[in-house]
## 1
Amino acid sequence: MSRLTLRSRLTIVYGGLFLLAGLALLAVTYILVRAQTIGPFTFTGHPPETIIAGRVGVAADQYLVQQADELRQSTMASLLTQGAVALALVGGVAVLLGWLVAGRLLAPLHRITETARRIASAPDADRGLHERIALPGPADEVKELADTFDTMLTRLDHAFDGQRRFVANAAHELRMPLTLNRSLVEVAMHRPAASDDVKQLGEVLLDINARHERLINGLLLLARTEHGITDRSYVDLSDVTDHVVGETSAEGLTATVSTAEAPVLGDALLLERLVRNLVDNAIRHNVAGGWLHVATDTVADRARLVVTNTGPAVPRYEIPALFEPFRRAGAERVGSTGLGLSIVRAIVRAHGGLVTAEPREGGGLVVTVLLPLALTEAPLVRR
């Protein structure tokens, strides 16, 4: 059952109060008019001691009294009828004016609601925080509410910007020592006097260092995509898919590709990373002798990329967590950085698209990416 809007309730309250006041005014007017008409009409005619004897005098006096009563009743009935009609007409006008006035008074609240709705429906939690209500008008309670809301948005915007800058700066600062560590380990491993134990230890350290470098690069890419995309060019997802799958090693797995033209406008490097992350994820989280299939096509006004693979069964309730940073499902995912699918989601959202995942019957996932289709008349800057 739908509830009445605030505008409707204000109109009903305003109209009801007006009608009650009108009824009270009509009742008071009726009482006052009746009190004024009863006195004169009751004593119309001659006093009893002065009435002329005879039937003519009595009949004339009764006729005058009867006419006075009829005139009084007609006057009161006319007052009630015309007063009720006038009250109904004026009440209708009052309700209409109340509706218009309530709408004008509530217009600032609608503006606040629309701004909050746009921010809440933004693809990322922080994507719409740059918006402000900036409500004009007198410094009343509604403007105070809007200004408070703007202040809250400003603080949240600064907080998210600070978080992104911290992640980007921290990742950038960490890349230098990791590069230096890799160089030192490689030098130590390739010395002529290096023992087998040193070489084995060096392999372990290089593997750990490479995993940390992937983590740092993932953080940098994640911070970059959250700032949005400024430079866009024509990119065919089928070309990107063929290129990525062609240079990807899937030992022990059967990899198949089914590509049809799927043009989009976006960042070619980020779209390549999107496809690569999905393919690597399908390879890493698979089973011995399994397979993976990558397909591209168009659906309505969307370009579609679908990556399907065999693998361990993933409960449906765990799928949303897979797209969160540093979230993994199952012990077999411990070796990953936990940023692969979160980077995919960030890239997709930066391109105005949507990514979903569904558990495949028998194990594995079906990951679907939908991106806005590029217009044919767009300038073609092929990858």
Note: The chain has three domains: 6-120, 142-225, 233-372.
## 2
Amino acid sequence: MLSINLIKEWVNLNITRFHEDKLKCLNKLNLNKILKNKNPYLFKAKNINLANDLIMGILDAYLSSSEEKIFGDFLENLAIYIAKITYNGRKSSATGIDLELNKNDIHYLISIKSGTNWGNSSQHKKQEEDFKKALRVLKQNHSINAEAILGICYGKTRSSFTQVYWKLVGQNFWFFISGNADLYLDIIKPLGYKAKEHNENFEDKEDQIINKFTQEFTNQYCLNGIINWEKLVKFNSGNIDIKENKGSIKIYRNI
């Protein structure tokens, strides 16, 4: 029997870990790491001329993608926890599969994604191949009735079948793994546990990082208070190590 109090307890404990992981991600950063992985041409095209604005833009973009990944892991673990209570589900060891459970004499292989805009076409194709392989192995070894599900934690897309797997989104996904049509509403309530406190702590640390990186950036990539875009682009993208020899590319070092 699924108890909302059990879910609240799990969320209260693990949402703290989510905020701790965000801080760990922030603490691991250094200026050169984020400068290497962001597009300097974009920031120039946006007419960003203040070092502080550039640092904030780069940091926000980096943290946004990291935060989505961290919270996606949180939702995946919550879904596995709920399925364990309701249908004795378990974390899967199969490639590309996150959760397995038995329901109504069917063994379900479930891959969990955070939102509907996950991955590119190659990743979608890889997910389908992972489903096919896992289903094939399961049916060969156990001769049981098995189905695959792509479970997406939020969104309003209608349920569909792709000849290989079912796609269940938002309320439908949480209902499927719990039997509770209101679960998608219930789990939002405890997510605010100490949220104000955690976010204030994170923002204080983020402000320190912004000030630190802005000072470092000004020292390294500014000349007379003006961003030296050429120096920044050279750091970000300067890597010439090829020559053309009669129409063919040849790789050289230290040209």
Note: The longest helix spans residues 51-87.
